[in-house]
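Extended Data, panel c. Modelled sequence:
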Amino acid sequence: MRMETERLEWARTAAENHDYFLSELISGSRAILSRNDLPRLAQNSSRPLIKKITDEKTVLGVMIPVGSSQWVIKSRIPELEEKLKKALALYHKENAWSLGMPAHQACALLELDNDCWEDLRRILAESNLIRVHSHCLSLKDFSIGLTARQQDLKEKIIKSAAAAGKPAIPLGTLQEELGATSLDLELLVRVLTAEGLITVIDRYIVHESVVNECREKLLELFKEEATVELGRFREITGLSRNLAVPILDYFDSQGITCRKGTGRTLMEKPED
């Protein structure tokens, strides 16, 4: 209701000021804009002018920047929620044992780049329809029907990963220690990964606190060094070679770092 009132106010403002750009934001065909849409909306190809207009609308709260080159129109967020609601209902029906729609799939559905995920999560954080997880989205009232044994195993996996710390724990070892079936372990690891509590790296289950600590220390190291070698990364994190290499590979896959020679460099974000 509040967003609908806000949308009417912006529509009135656009009409009074003959602001075609704002009118298109409020009632155009798209609730999400990309950089390529801007010259048409501004009716001008001047980059300084386009930047001035988008900065103005962003400061006013009409547009919300997402990722490096897209914007969500604030008053039209309910449209995105409704689209997600319908898609998630179907997703849950077809994937009863999945916690939710993966980040990349949710972004693709809304025609967002993958680098928009964190911003999308923040936008949907207070939604009454959608539940936001670390790596996926689900309907607010959806839950996986775990058995009592599976719920118990889930808690034990979290505790084992936390207790293992930086040495981490191999999947095979964890399965043997818990006496879990392959199917149960696969399901619960998938659920815990989606909840952002663990990360599977190579053959290891790594508690998310370890991944976060290693990421932070690596980023701090990049403030001093342009290229970080494996040995230096191991020195600052205390990781064994068996885990340090796959964690660096994982950071590569996340677009945080990239391999350069025998070391890693920090991926640069594209300029506006």
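The longest helix spans residues 77-94. This feature is highlighted in the accompanying rendering.
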